[in-house]
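Action item from last week, closing it out:
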Amino acid sequence: MCVLLYIKHSKSFSGRLVQLHDEMSVVERIIMFLSELGGTACLVFVGCLGCISGNATVISFGFGFAIMMGVQIFGHISGAHINPAVTVAAATLGSFPLINVPIYIFGQLMGAITGFGLVKLLIHNSILSIAGLCSPGPTQHLTAFQLFLSEFILTLLLVWVCCAVWDSRNATKHDSLPLRLGLAVTGLAMAGGGLSGANMNPARSFGPALLNNTWDRHWVYWLGPLLAGFIGALIYRIIFSKDAKKNETYPEGT
């Protein structure tokens, strides 16, 4: 039986549960870890290869299609969070066992290092080798707070997309889900790429930063997305979730 913990919250939650851990075996947890590692490696490898072009549109679509590939390949295995902010959001909604949070995030970080390591291996000592390739590129004309706000808002929108996907009321609307998620990331990357780089993912930021040894205002790319993951999911849970609506249903159109 899953061990569950009640959280004292406002009546709008109607006593929802937060899952502490589940009955998953050690082998199953290892598989989840490897799935998140593989999905994040796919994201960083494909996305960062696109950064070689230097074209903002190519980069945005590259990361969007990388998300599409990761979700298609690993979504049925671990859910393909491939982003610590998404994992934090899932745990905040109460739909994801807390014991799996560090497992997922560690897998995502290792995947980002692996994916970018492969990129470095491919272009090492070649004309394509670029200093600081794919590292978070904060716009120097913006303050640290503006960069933080950019990452926070962009990730908040991404988290709300994920919350809507997980909502049971959308259970019949998952056709072409990998493509939809990929295009959502593409749109956000196009919108915010010129500000903070629109990383929206601490793992995606960490891998290139570590291997390039570039840490300029790196904290922004952790604090913004992780806070957005928690606050965004909390807002969705309190205001928009099925429990918040007390199981009322509304017609989709007029």
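Closing note: The longest helix spans residues 26-51.
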